[in-house]
Amino acid sequence: TLAPLTSERDLNHRLDAPEGRFVFKIANAADPHALTRFQNRALRHAGAADPALPIPRVIATLQGADDVVLPTGNLMRVLSWVEGAPLAGLPRTEAQGQGVATLGARLARALRGLDDPAADHVLQWDIRHAAKLRPLLPHVADPDLRALCTQVLDRFDAHVAPALPGLRWQVIHGDLNPHNILGDPATPDRVTGILDFGDMVRTPLVCDLAVAASYRIDPARPAESLAAFAAAWHAVDPLTPDERAVLVDLTAARMVTTVAITAFRAARYPENAAYILRNLPSARAGLSAFAALDPAAMHRALAAACP
User: What does the radius of gyration of the chain's CA atoms come to, in whole angstroms?
Assistant: First the structure.
């Protein structure tokens, strides 16, 4: 039995069968087969590196392949089902945030060493390309929010972009947002899994932390919440001093990425605007909170939390 699941690009269904529950996926025809197969290899690599990691497993065909090419040219594949509900629909707690950071760091470690030609594709959501977002800013209707985005990109160009080549690079998940991370509805503190590996790319490792952190900032306590989140990640996969130095600006740049790309896409695809704009409110709140803080104070808080 198939039941449709939401998705931005692919055609996804829950598959209930006598053998259990799975995810049935038909990849978007616009995506090269190499990108989808990159996801398959990454899931197998991470699962082998950390067998207890709660991520989907690739279900092989009877012939041992990871996918099937349909007559339309689309790739079809089946993944294991990961139990839980998206964190976007669950109450937020500090313990849950710690769980997200811990699981994200475990996944980053498990992906280390993965080498695939498709990993070097250009992805608009990759924070290292934040400077290329400027042409999208006119689609941000709120002038105050647009001004905040411009300020963040100015800092990115001045302070972050020159430092990126010297950081650690590897394949990262790239989209650790609350719709892709699962928790236990009965115990929201407990994080149960990570989904959607469609935004993987080789980029500075700290970008994965910045993506995840951008969705966990408490606007009432921005410095403290970022420091606590980074400390939980650091405890599993320690940051270098250079990574710590760019984390604040990278986190803000991810918020700008969310604002700019979703504003642009919602204007182009109004029928899917509700789905596209689902992360905009948290990005707006985070940018406003960051703008009111002294960057030096935030860097001191990170240095104390991640020695």
Answer: 19
What pTM value is reported for the model? 0.93
**Per-residue tokens: 195:** 């989904």
User: Amino acid identity, residue 240?
Assistant: T
Q: How many angstroms separate the CA atoms of 298 and 192, rounded?
A: 30
Q: CA 214 to CA 224: how far, in whole Å? A: 13
For the stretch 188-224, what's the b/e string if a residue is b when 16 or more beta carbons lie within 10 angstroms of its beta carbon? bebbbbbbbbbbbbbbbbbbbbbbbbbbbbbeeebbe
Residue 182: name the closest of 191, 170, 174 by CA. Answer: 191
Average pLDDT, consecutive stretches of 10 residues, N- to C-terminus, the chain (307 residues): 90 96 95 96 98 98 96 96 96 96 98 96 95 94 92 96 97 96 97 96 98 94 94 98 96 94 88 81 87 86 93
Pull the structure tokens for residue 57. Answer: 């497993």
Measured from the Cβ of residue 274, the count of other Cβ atoms closer than 10 Å reads 9
Q: How far apart are CA 26 and CA 22, in angstroms?
A: 13
**Exposed e or buried b per residue across 89-104, where buried means at least 16 C-beta atoms within 10 angstroms of its C-beta:** ebebeeebbbbbbbbb
